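LOG
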Amino acid sequence: MSLNRKTTDTPDRFNDFKVRVGKKLSRFGLTVMRFRNLFLALIVLSVGLLSYNIPNLSIATSLESSFKGHNQAIREYQKFRDLFGRDDKIFILISSEDIFSTHFLARLKEFHEDLEDTLPMVSEVDSLINARYIEGEEGSLRDTGFMDKLPQTREEAETLRTRALEYPLYRNSYLSRNGDAVIMVIKTQAVSALTDDGRRIKNHGRGFMEGAPPDSDEPLKSISQVENIAILGIIETVVKQYNAENFSIVFSGTPAYQYNVEPKIRKS
């Protein structure tokens, strides 16, 4: 007897609930129709307030953005990257009919030095210009710069060509496999040069970091996507100045990928 009562009570409660909800929705609909101008104004105001800050939104694609700034593991990882360098480097490939001509090497040196002096938040720029050359000499190792001075004659340039092509560590690191292009690698600082309010930290910024490092008690932050975009924008500007028919420049790497892909993500 009690079982039948439970069975019949359940549908009745459900029907009563539907009736109550239907009445409330009906009253709400009538209220919206009666005060439609007020509700329309509230909707426009709400959408305006929610969309006001859209231009200031940023997209964080790095792994560190998933952790809080004071996370100990991230702090140690940032210190490690600041000491040993980052893995997301910027690679520049410069091709020419003759990469060991005196004209090409002189232009390469100007391009290398211009990047060093112009780029912000840079820890290192590597190319043949500052490459190290290690060779055996009378039972010892001799460490010198590969290009301590620019070649002035065709013979000096040919000597450099022979040394570079015979040196196994230069292939695929400073020279392309077939020897028709020069590779340049740019390493940016691991730690951001900006404070929370967006102002630069003292002794950081344009060119190589000089002076005293930031206060060790201050929480370290990875270089931001805004700073990466700024670096790539400056690289693009410098590349346009040097890019020529016999000095063709292209660049790639993780920061370059983010620089080109993120604007498309924002538009989608």
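LOG (cont.) second protein
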Amino acid sequence: MSGILEKFIQITSEFSRIQKLPQPYKDKDDNFPFPRQLRTGNDRYITISKSIDQLIADVARTMRNNSSLKSHFAASDYLALVKQAFGPALAKVDINAPTKNAQPLLAEVEKKVSEMADRALNDGGREYAFGCTLFTYDDFPEFEIGPARFEPRLVWLDRKTSDGCWVKVSDNGLIKKFEHQLSDGPISKTIKQRITQAWQGEILKPQEPSFENRYEDVVLKAIDRCPYVCSVKVPGAGGKSSKDKALLASRLALTTISLIWESSSKALDGINLHFDREMRNQYLLSFTPEGLILGSGTTSNMPHAPWTNRTELENFFQEFSLIFRISGEAINWLINPTQEHDKPKLLNVISQAMLWFHDGCREITDIKAIVCFASCMDVLASGGGQKDICKLINARLGLDESSPIHRDGLTVKEVINQIYDDGRTRFVHGPMKFGKNVWKNKLGNDWSETRGLAEWLARMCLINSMEWISANTGSDNPALLLTE
């Protein structure tokens, strides 16, 4: 406490100093283009110096590190809370007795931050919506994976015009809450009709600027031409933390769906959030030594997952229902780890392994993808490296380390050595080992075949580990994934 109190003493002393100088105050050596200010309420501000701004950031970092709510607020979220609390409190400081004001200022800031944090955590959370691509069909029935809900966009639009609205934005831009329901949903029927027309390819007639028109514009830009919407409900949290968790949940839910296909990376080439990627043309230009100009074109990614017979796809959803359930629980753990969970240790393992697998599938460079897939298996093997990955493969896939798994006769042990040591370890740690060059020119080699093997093994280990967790409901010991 004495450390943070000292920061408040410095803040009040510096604030007292600059208030006695011509306003608005600005440090001569401050590269920030405008005077630094804090809101005090009622559209008023106080000017602060660069030093005060930095000290407030120090205070915010200390308070967040000491808070039990750290997982709910990103560093920028907490800094915003602290600055919001500082403005009104600092404006009341007696500039003639700055040192005496430090302790009361600390108490008031802590009280205000606690109140705002509690309000954010108990406001019911937020539901994020992302346009996404999934299958060749645009009317696949809605389904859920943990907190992520997937719906055809017209189904989603119907829901958002009927799930209630109790708030209104006033003319001055402030949000006012009411005790009674104001409308059927956040999207009005008029806006719904215009959005539907736009999705049907019609050109909308311009309207006078209004908040409703702004909502229409936001929906059309966020969903765009995507046939599906992924909605994620995130518990109360800071703005950046909440958004980041929603995106992470969506990406891992899409990765879960991709496990249906033997090549998950190929499936994820067409399963995307509009927020992350949309299909576009890519053009390549090259010249031969003889002076010939060559051009070629490709697409950045596919518009949907590989075609699958509809009945077969529905059967896959039944077959992978347990995988979807365990993955959903892991995603729920990831966005709200402080909540009570039946098997937090295993869910921690699965969520982190899923994240590595997602990044491996999305990675452009083959050797970096191998690092991700090796890390996915390493997480499932409790971080035990090659030896324990072989144990994991034996326990979950029924293949001992001497089993051949390659057409050239390579065994599990040899393939894992190629993935983990030749690929992952040497790329992560560099070509030198004990002063000797152990990699030579391998960095530029073709790693695509090793990448394919690494993805196949990581996918199988991930699927079978989740099946084991589903079958062993009473266990929360990740080490048991390595046993038969």
